[in-house]
Amino acid sequence: MVLQMESPAPSIKVVDWLRGEPLTNFQPGKVYIVEFWATWCGPCVAAMPHLVQLQEKYKDSGLEVVGVAADEDAPTADEARTKLDAWLSEKCSNLNYRIAFDHTGEMNKLWREPSFSIGIPASFVVDRDGHIAFVGHPMQLDEVLPKVLNGSWRTSDEAKAADTERIASHQRKARELTLTNPIYAKLRPAMQAEDWTAALSAVEEGVALMPDILDFREIHANLLLHKIRDMQTGLPVMGQLVRDAIRKKFEAEHWLVMALNQLFDPGMNNSHLPRSERFAMGKELSEHILALNPPQGDGPKFWSYPAVARYYHESGNKDRAIELIELALKSLDDPQISDGLKQRRLPDLLQALANYKGEKVCYGALCAVPQNNFPTGPKRRRPRRKLQKG
Question: pTM for this one?
Fold first, then answer.
């Protein structure tokens, strides 16, 4: 049976409650967020401070947050439980909601599988009458939760349309996984063994089968340009990737940034790439990112602007690079940005700013100093001195 909006909420079937009192059933009149997460999942961990804030903000309105760790990675259930408990003690001293641990797979069978929730984090909101009101990403809760609490969400056209689209999207992803899983089964071991020929064969099969899978396109370009270093094949592949990224309507910024990173990621040695082609593609990608998310606009800058800043810095436009990083830092001040996300992004942005300015920079109590091994922009030739006669 499909689990969707208006469905009765499944039971909470867990034995281990690591934080908070056990929850035996959903109490009428209360609203619950049932959050599936794992310690190895970056977006899950980033969402936890946000859930803490929601629990505190809406506790007097009858909100109860329940975290369900049903995907912990360890050889045995006991090891997973011990690892999870230690992680919570170290990382989450201010946790104010329940945490359940399930090693049986029962919670995933009851909640995630019938709702087509393939990945985590996955948030389920249970309404005051014990029915599902919302299924989605925890970062969507700021908009949805107040409407659930005041009783206006489930009857709205917005809610019905969102749930219909969610189910259709997850069904598409499920079909996609049946095609991509066999590719990844060949690609992952080849990448781990650094067998670039086998990896290239697998990823080319994936690109031919599903050319709109961002991961396949990124790995394809990376293998050719940075692992195998086949410029004759790699540059046309990269050029096509740039053109496809520019034409994208959905997830365009992700595609553009991914393509730009293949050319200007400081973690890669780009010295073997032909300079003229590299900078021409970098210029085109950077201009499209700034057109899509302009400096004067309200869009978040902390994710895409560092990649654009790297292009401008290597091009010799240090002032533009500094300006973009400062805008990225400023965008982190948005109150809608969770503390967890801010803490993850801030160190890299500060380090980039220190490197570009060539001096120590600080943001609150956090400071960064320039790194000696940071790639600099092109060196300017000094004008030759004319020889004086006599």
Answer: 0.63
